[in-house]
Automatic annotation (TrEMBL):
Record-linked InterPro entries: HARBI1-like, HARBI1_dom
DDE Tnp4 domain ranges (all copies): 180-345
Entry annotated with the keyword Protease: no
Protein name, UniProt field: DDE Tnp4 domain-containing protein
Region annotation Disordered: where it falls in the sequence: 1-21
GO molecular function, one term: nuclease activity
């Protein structure tokens, strides 16, 4: 039997179909000349929202919504621009059918992180859908996590000497390289994912964030991703920072010799929840302290509070960290936390000043009692005694 012969009509229809498929739908991209339009539209729509005390000054209003000045905003855009425009923009379309500019994508992501509001609320403020907010925010997080690494790194020896000098000038602590603290990022979890590991001492499900900061409250080292049920002393021992210090590869700079001949190695200041180690100095317990011990504790506490204030600032600036997260992906949450810390550092590095009402007014971990670690290293005890004697002798 001869093969079936295709009709001329079917050939013509096939040709038309191929032609239609070859023509892609062209979506107009917002031109560079109108990149500021998103802000004008956003400002008109949101500057007088009921129940929201937005500054009347437009520059202050920009900081209110996005936590950064316009100059810093442009710098952040420059970091992620290549990543945001190199990926397929499918779905990133506003209600007018135009592709979202890089600037508008960054604004959406910053607003989501800064406010902690729902994706629906953030989308309504920008005229985009919930799924767009979700996609844009995650694309931004992935890009900044990769492109802003240089804003969060351990200092080189020259920078560390500057940090030590500032700590000594401000708090009298010789050879102090930073302050350490930890905070809980609270979340809800599906029943199938709940476990005692993630349930912290206050019966919240949470993830820990530990950070070491310098004299300007800039994060020098962070670790996150660990369950909130851990103590901070146990968390410390699980970190790469602990292993580096114990192996002599960190906090291993020049030794400071005090007037009495005692050697003080590099160290960081931590609270009573941490072990007393040669490179991590904690305060004396508050019972029956001598004058020298009390003086040391006061100086130590002033330095340690830099880390406490840094966490109050990062959780106040990027309020997504201060709200109860609804069933977050625990694999993605560390990236969200890291990017908020990177943004915190970028604000400092760019010389931005936060609006006065941004930082949390209280402690960054309200309701959590202070943990107490009894582990004492003899060399750490000797270091602390030498520092206390140094203060008592008035240098």
């Amino acid at each position: 039997m001869a093969p079936h012969k295709k009709s001329k009509k079917s050939k013509r229809e096939l040709k038309k179909l191929k032609k239609r498929k070859s023509i892609s739908t062209v979506v107009p991209v917002e031109p560079k000349a109108t990149e500021s339009d998103w802000w004008d539209t956003f400002w008109r729509k949101n500057s007088s929202s009921p129940g929201c005390s937005v500054p009347s000054d437009e520059a202050a209003g920009f900081k209110h919504f996005f936590r950064v000045s316009k100059n810093t905003f442009e710098y952040i855009c420059s970091l992620v621009r290549e990543d945001l425009i190199s990926r397929p923009p499918s779905g990133l379309i506003n209600i007018e059918g135009r592709l979202l500019s890089v600037e508008k994508q960054v604004a959406i992501a910053l607003r989501r992180l800064a406010s902690g509001e729902s994706q629906v609320s953030v989308g309504a403020a920008f005229g985009v859908g919930q799924s767009t907010v979700s996609q844009v925010t995650w694309r931004f997080i992935e890009a900044l996590e990769e492109r802003a690494k240089h804003h969060l790194k351990w200092p080189d020896s020259n920078k560390m000497e500057e940090i030590k000098s500032k700590f000594e000038a401000s708090f009298g602590l010789p050879n102090c390289c930073g302050a350490i603290d930890a905070t809980h990022i609270i979340m809800t979890l599906p029943a199938v994912q709940t476990s005692d590991d993630w349930c912290d001492p206050e019966s919240n499900y949470s993830m820990l964030l530990q950070g070491i900061v310098d004299h300007e409250m800039r994060f020098l080292d962070i670790v996150t991703g660990w369950p909130g049920g851990m103590t901070v002393s146990r968390l410390l021992k699980c970190t790469g920072f602990f292993k580096l210090c114990e192996g002599g590869e960190r906090l291993n700079g020049s030794v400071r010799t005090l007037p009495g001949g005692e050697d003080i190695r590099e160290f960081i200041a931590g609270g009573v929840g941490y072990p007393l180690l040669p490179w991590l100095i904690t305060p004396y317990e508050s019972n029956g302290l001598s004058a020298s011990m009390s003086t040391f504790n006061a100086m130590h506490e002033a330095a340690r509070l830099l880390a406490v204030r840094a966490f109050s600032q990062v959780k106040g600036s990027w309020r997504i960290l201060n709200k109860v997260m609804w069933r977050p992906d625990k694999r993605k949450l560390p990236s969200i936390i890291l990017v908020c810390c990177l943004l915190h550092n970028i604000v400092i590095d760019c010389g931005d000043n936060l609006l006065p009402d941004v930082a949390l007014s209280g402690h960054h971990d309200p309701g959590y009692g202070e943990q107490c670690c009894k582990l004492v290293d003899p060399l750490g005890r000797t270091m602390r005694e030498n520092l206390a004697k140094f203060f008592h002798q008035g240098k």
